[in-house]
Design goal:
The protein is mostly helical. The protein has one domain: Cytochrome c-like domain (Cytochrome Bc1 Complex, Chain D, domain 2, Orthogonal Bundle). The chain is 45% helix and 7% strand. The chain contains 11 helices and 7 strands. The strands form 3 sheets. It has a 3-stranded mixed β-sheet. α3 packs across α7 and α8 packs across α11.
Length: 270
Amino acid sequence: MRLQSLIGRGFRLLPGLMTALACSVSLAQTSPTPPAADTRRSGFADMGASTQAMQQDDSLNPGMLWAQGGKTLWSQPAGQSGKACASCHGDAAQSMRGVAARYPAFDKRTSKPITLGQRINQCRQTHQQASPLRTESEELLGLESHVALQSRGLPIVPPDDPQLNVPRARGQQLFVQRMGQLNLSCAQCHDQNASGRLGGSIIPQAHPTGYPIYRLEWQGMGSLQRRLRNCMTGVRAEPFAYNADEMLALELYLAARAKGMPVETPAVRP
């Protein structure tokens, strides 16, 4: 009788046990999957100790010369309006904080993406009534560097604007598209063979965290578009023109790949 009682009691508890088991299985199925580890790395991590030290010390970083030049231009009147950048925007350390981390952005005037350098020239023409600065000129790179310096350490935040979806997708397509006589794509080097070596140099993941950038090879500052054109020339392809739609598309996609990574401007690279 005692054994039968225990068996009966067990059967009476069984529905409750089954319900508890079902709940635990359900919770296991609906629990969020832990996010994958972020394996992205800035090109800074692939540099030698001496070059890293050069970037980290503002007194050694040659890019700071351009940033200081841009700071001077920021307060210098220009054009027929007689206004300086500071006339409208005040101290860049406050008004420009986080601005560079959001470019390229969508421009309502042209209904196209626009880079930070293009925005600076747009302001010069519209508000200062001054001539646009030449692409890759020291003046334009200086102003870009000064503005971008105010975002140093902040995460890259690409605009969540649906009007940028099409050009950004175009940029992704261009990133994986083979080109040139060497028939190579950006992705083959910077995704599939990142951290490998090419001509003795480590291949970076190609995250645009530090532009405008000072390259020891150039002995000067340069924009992301200059670097992209270098890569295209390297694979024996006809480089896109500065500020071409294809360039803007690539910049948009690269910014999306680097979302959340900190701005390093002015960065130093070999």
